[in-house]
Target: SDR family oxidoreductase
Amino acid sequence: MRFTGKAAIVTGAASGIGLAVATRLANEGANVVLADIDANGIATLEQQLLAAGCQGVFCSPCDVSDEDQVQRAVDAAIGRFGRLDIVVNNAGIMVFKPIELQTKDDWLRVLGVDLLGAFFFTKHAFRAMTHGGAIVNVSSVHAVETEPLIAPYAAAKTALVSLTRSAALEGKPKGIRVNAVLPGAIDTDMLWSNPNVKSGQEKIATNDVGKAEDVAAAILYLASDDAAFVQGAMLRVDGGRLDR
Ligand code: NAD
Model:
């Protein structure tokens, strides 16, 4: 029970990696705010976790690209638990289009969720984490190497690495650690909605596709006291994809 007495917010908790992170944090003793734009999805997870005996969970429906909603989620955590120790910036979206067809709105939507959402939570967590804390950002291998059709996503995930480094420097004197994971191909709805993956499905089936739980394990390590001396790290969770 590494997280007994800790209070956490997990964004994108209704599905995939966020659901695995929230479930594991709750099972390891944390109080968890489930933050997602999918209010039904987090309500279902809340019921499941309560039924499993995890009493310290509640939903905060939240569009992470809206700073007022982010501030309300942070305030709700403080109001309910009296503290905030962990934020996992996991919510993310992709737009699949050739650059000639991409619009300003495509870019603003992706940057709003995948980058600004993490910025808003970092800003308000810095205010709220009065005992220090840990922030884990879910970037992607696309921050380092990428593929066609996802320019806004790759740009957002690269900038998220940059935000992680800046926030790690500014968080250090406050006792707040800020780190990132860079997942490779992970078996979630997002992966199978990617037309690049669909067209190369045979190839990817013979390579490693990780599970949401593989990424959750890495995120929980970075959020835990086991990573007390880990600051500004970029942890690839990709089964060796970048070494090929
Ligand atoms: P997913 O689609 O299963 O989950 C994404 C979650 O984010 C959903 O619950 C969705 O409702 C939520 N969300 C979307 N827009 C939101 C908003 N505006 N406000 C709040 N919540 C919002 O996908 P996933 O694979 O679990 O993705 C989780 C994170 O992992 C994302 O940041 C994604 O970019 C990253 N990632 C995924 C993979 C992969 O292969 N699956 C690889 C690298 C990185």
About this structure: Residues 11-12, 14-18, 36-38, 41, 62-65, 90-93, 113, 138, 140, 183, 185-186, 188-191 surround nicotinamide-adenine-dinucleotide (CB under 6 Å). The mean pLDDT is 95. The first strand starts at residue 7 and ends at 11. The beta strands are 7-11, 31-36, 57-61, 86-89, 133-138, 176-183, 234-237.
